[in-house]
Amino acid sequence: MRVLISADMEGATGTTWPKDVEPGTPAWERMRRLLTSDVNACVEGLFSGGADEVVVNESHETQRNILLDELDHRARLLIGRHKPLGMVQGIQEADAAVFLGYHTGAGAQGVLSHTYLASALTGFRIDGEHADEGRMNALAAAEYGVPVILVTGDDLTCAAAARWAPGARTAAVKECVSRFAAVCLPPSRSAALIREQAELAVSEHAVRGRPEPVTGPHHFEIDFHATHLAEAVAGIPTVEQTGPRTVAFTAPTATRALRTFRICSTVAGASAEDRFG
Ligand SMILES: [Zn+2]
Questions:
Q1: Ligand 1 centre and the CA of 133: distance in Å?
Q2: What CA–CA distance (Å, rounded) separates 54 from 141?
Q3: Does the pLDDT value for residue 275 go beyond 90?
Q4: CA 157, 186, 196, 47 torsion: positive or negative?
Q5: pTM of the entire predicted model
Q6: Most buried residue, 199, 224, 239, 271, by CB count within 10 Å?
Q7: Is 94:3 a contact under the CB 8 Å cutoff?
Q8: Distance of alpha carbon 134 from alpha carbon 142, whole angstroms
Q9: If you measure from the C-alpha of residue 208 to the centroid of ligand 1, how many angstroms do you get, rounded to a whole number?
């Protein structure tokens, strides 16, 4: 069984502050070790549960956060940006997926909650329902018949996952107090929790088997914090401005929708200006 771990950082053990997840800062250097510890615990649990192959896809910022020289030797690491399927690149060859270090979406309560952009994107809906990166990535995985078997992050991310990956196990490594504060488990305890849940997730998946691929069109709506971002993004073919700060588009499949969403976020990110006033 081949398992893909999509590893983000906002939901890793210990991270609660923007600098913790900002590449190049001393805080980030420290937190890279904690993220790597979460990943290693997951790899260990997956192999004990019966996985034959594990690929870890770096999914945060520059996508070079995990310490390769400290990674469990049985796993392989996909490092770097500009991957067609972004956070779920590699799903095409996987039998099951783990979303590790995930977080809640823009506008929701949760530690370091956001959707792609730190603050310029304020709301996101898929087919009319509140959406986050987890829901979008789970839909893309479902198109390949790949279930999400484990989600790790803060307690609110784990609760949110019940809505878009109801069969997944969860491991909450911190309890949200505010968007920038959490009661955190030390890495030794979060590692034990992740290891245990990963092992159970793989053995349950082996019994349950893979689901049938699910495909179909999806309607995405995105709210931005300013009108000029919606205007800029509406220049992308198939994307329409539906309100002063809102754009929407329909794509024939979840992976097409994910790819269009990524372009929207890139254009909006490039159109945002520094703070003023
Ligand atoms: Zn991230």
A1: 10
A2: 16
A3: no
A4: positive
A5: 0.97
A6: 224
A7: yes
A8: 12
A9: 30
